[in-house]
Specification:
Blueprint: H1 3-7, H2 10-19, E1 24-25, H3 26-31, H4 37-49, E2 53-58, E3 61-66, H5 68-97
Antiparallel strand pairs: 1-3, 2-3
Length: about 100
Amino acid sequence: MDAFTALADPTRRRIIEMLAEGELSAGEIGERFTLSAPAISQHLKALREAGLVRVTVAGQRRIYALDPDGIDGFEQWVRRVRAFWPDRLAALEAALRKPDPGEEA
């Protein structure tokens, strides 16, 4: 699953937002939702497979954190797309400012 597909789900986006504040165990994440533990586990698996989160095992607990590499890759894509717009918007603005050939100046 790619990052965009993973983030299309509102539960997964909320998990990412929670992990942006710091590491959490799977149980701590699950406590913040009304979903079952297996459902939360599936969401965490999707986020792991998309490279957005990483997990470390501490005894019986699985601790989740954002994966900087996955988040950086997503951010780089957003920057590339965002870079497309300034030139396009400037060209649109210039075109809109040109008087219509049929109009008087």
